[in-house]
Amino acid sequence: MSATGIxxxxxxLAWVVAVLPLVSAALTLFFGKRTPxxxxxxxxxxxxxxxxxxxxxxxxxxxxxxxTSSSVSWFTIGPLHVEAGQFxxxxxxxxxxxxxxxxxxxxxxxxxxxxxxxxxxxxxxVLSVFTAAMxxxxxxxxxxxxxxxxxxxxxxxxxxxxxxxxxxxxxNAAIKAFITTRIGDVPFMFGIFVLIAAxxxxxxxxxxxxxxxxxxxxxxxxxxxxxxxxxxxxxxxxAQFPLHVWxxxxxxxxxxxxxxxxxxxxxxxxxxxxxxxxxxxxxxxxEVLRFVGVxxxxxxxxxxxxxxxxxxxxxxxxxxxVSQLAYMVTAMSVGPPGRDAAFFHLFTHAFFKALLxxxxxxxxxxxxxxxxxxxxxxxxxxxxxxxxxxxGSAALAGVPPLAGFWSKDELLVAASxxxxxxxxxxxxxxxxxxFYTTRMVMQTFFGxxxxxxxxxxxxxxxxGPLVALAFGTITVGFLGAAVxxxxxxxxxxxxAPEPVTFVLWVVTLSILAAGLGILxxxxxxxxxxxxxxxxxxxxxxxxxxxxxxxxxxYMHGIVLPVRDxxxxxxxxxxxxxxDGVVNGTARLTKDLAxxxxxxxxxxxxxxxxxxxxxxxxxxxxxxxxxSGNVQRYAAFLxxxxxxxxxxxxxx
Amino acid sequence: MIRLPLVxxxxxxxxxxxxxxxxxxxxxxxxxxxxxxxxxxxxxxLVAFSQFWHDVTGQVFALFVIAVAAAEVGIGxxxxxxxxxxxxTINVDEVNLLKW
Lengths: 651, 100
What we know:
The structure holds 2 protein chains of 2 kinds.
Chain A: H1 14-31, H2 40-62, E1 68-77, E2 80-88, H3 90-113, H4 120-139, H5 143-161, H6 168-198, H7 206-212, H8 220-237, H9 246-249, H10 255-264, H11 266-276, H12 278-283, H13 286-308, H14 313-332, H15 336-367, H16 383-397, H17 403-416, H18 420-445, H19 460-475, H20 487-492, H21 504-525, H22 539-545, H23 550-622, H24 630-650
Antiparallel strand pairs in A: 1-2
Helix pairs in contact in A: 1-2, 1-4, 2-3, 3-4, 3-10, 3-15, 3-19, 4-5, 5-6, 6-8, 8-11, 10-14, 10-15, 11-14, 11-15, 13-14, 13-18, 14-15, 14-18, 15-16, 15-17, 15-19, 16-18, 16-19, 17-18, 17-21, 18-21
Chain B: H1 4-24, H2 28-53, H3 57-87
Helix pairs in contact in B: 1-2, 2-3
């Protein structure tokens, strides 16, 4: 258990953090509508308690404690014995805090944002179930348990994107998200099976499998296949090219959901998975990590470009999320230092991206539109939203000393050691990121107001979480910064922490890229040009506005051909098999009914009538005995006494 | 001292006469009288065995039977009178009411 002699402390109770939201979901489902707030009270309480417990779990690692694990027997298939349980190390503790912290902010924020919603209680039920599933993924000590949480998250994502399903576009987005991630989840599941098979069916435990893949008798080819299949899950869940198309559409869901699921937690699960199973990727062929890098690189730069031409503020943030996740994925490809940096970026990104989404939610709440072309000049009217949003944007752009700067710096440092292409691409993407972030802020908060009505600042229940997350955005970066000795990395990777180094030329380039992007953005958008110059770039603009035509390619290359053939097959199946079954059943029923009729008439009626006739016949015979004549009765009595007397005397 | 078999023989003859009267007579009053014959045949038996065993219980029992027989005859004659008033006859063949 603990290697350093410190007791397990609260790490034993990490599973309680995951169970609490599940309990609150059940309570909300059954009793939510009877509570004064129509159901938020259970979720907020449970997640808040989980957050406190997570801090206590982290305290164990701050003190220098080691990883702990505990499990119970789950099931056995052939030689494979699977246990369900928890594995808690520094990374788990950090993830617990991220998930419960962001979830708490979103739970509180939604009290205001979802007020008066038709399915308010149901919203909280699914939000709590989602939190429980994500926490299950975080604490899971084995692959099967992780897969369960992973799939439940997908379901909750589907339910929440389609929360306002009355509008066709929303339910379509939900279906698209569900099916697209499913395309990644199927390889992921087979990846788990291949991985367990490759390591000889010894265990499904993540830790044990991670140790076994290095064994001499383990086929490297199989491990490579497993790694590729597992990465398929990451491509789907973390919205990497070419399956990133679902995430922008997922913005049809309520904004708090976008903040929690589609920015801070669920989409980060794919990155978390790669990091957790990193030894699998290290022991696979080097081409696998190179493939990871290529996918990440394409997504990182492509999504950042797409964010340039979006008018819907949530879609800007969605493409930004895709791009930032790709940063982490790309960093994973450069080796263990990249993995550590990626986790740090995951940690900081969760705070500032959740902040940005919740801020965008306040804006949408105020102007009743997602479009930045209907905003503008809001900084005076919504000061709290403006300042917190500004901090979030600065962190995203990489302005020192905010969280995004430190983690992006770590990513660049990791890539600077012999990965020139990755490093250059990261730097260019950082520049584009700074540019589109500036564009977003300029169009929403500055210039004249272009929308309708009179926008007002959001209520305190919504701005409160913003301020809390802004505080996190400012502070959490220092945990991993070189100036504080990078305590984050000591907690998370206690076994062999990479020393956090401060590389001057990298930092200079990073600041230069961010500064250049912000300056360019300010210069282009300082006068609120109409029309937006981003749409005036000829073929490039049309390419970007049409999202590289990927949706069209998928629609005409895959969805329609498959759908048309599938529908033809379904029609054939319907006509021949289903109709055959239905008609056959009908004919069978009719024949059976005829048989039953005959049986009814002959056997059942015969029995009933026979009983009646027998009774009538017997009665007809017996009626002669009852004549009413007293003397005949007396004679019967006398004969009876005689018979009795004879019988008794004989005996 | 009269011997016991003689008394029993007399009692049986008396009882048989009673049975004949009950089964064969058509007059309801005579049927009632025949029942009295049968009861008194039993009384004779009781008294005879009481004397034979030197046990007074049988004689006490006979007294009870006489009392019950008196009550029975009272009710029986009342029923006969009622039947006569209703039907103008006491012929038991015509009074076939004991059926459903």
